[in-house]
Amino acid sequence: MAKKQSTLDRRFNEFSRVTFLDENGRPKSAAWLYSFLLALLYAILYAAAFIGAGLLLGRVMDASLLVIPLQYLLTAVIGSIPCVALLFVFKEHKGYVVGAYLWLIVLVLLTIPATLLMSDWSEGYGWTDLWMFCIYLFFPAILSIGVGGTAAYLLYRRYRRAEEAEIAAKDRPSYYNT
Prior knowledge:
- The protein has helices spanning 7-20, 30-56, 58-63, 67-89, 95-118, 125-171.
- By secondary structure, the protein is mainly alpha-helical.
């Protein structure tokens, strides 16, 4: 007898089938799938950086609310270091890192309506939920994506320009070799 799938399992399977697989069950694009999985890894790394920065600056945060932007910036820098360092690991597929940051933007933007729908709006508690969401997820995520994504894009663009210059240099006739 087949086991019934939960609603969450069924929706996740539908999402993955529509997003990543074609009608024959093969991946539509390996780059989409790899960059999405890399985005999930980045989300975990940024969450670990945020928790670590919160524990590190926890005592200081009790004294002043001005440290919160410092915590966000520290989270962004600490979390972006291993994420952007993967550009040097993926020798031939550096676009996966930039694609992962694009997926992170999509994931963060999808959490906004989810938060609005899940908040309890009776007696004004929804605004508190929304504010907590912004403080603990949205602002650090946007800053982290901005810092890491900008660094990754600039390094990727530099790599692509160097690659194009190398190809152009091979096609150019050399008068020194004749």
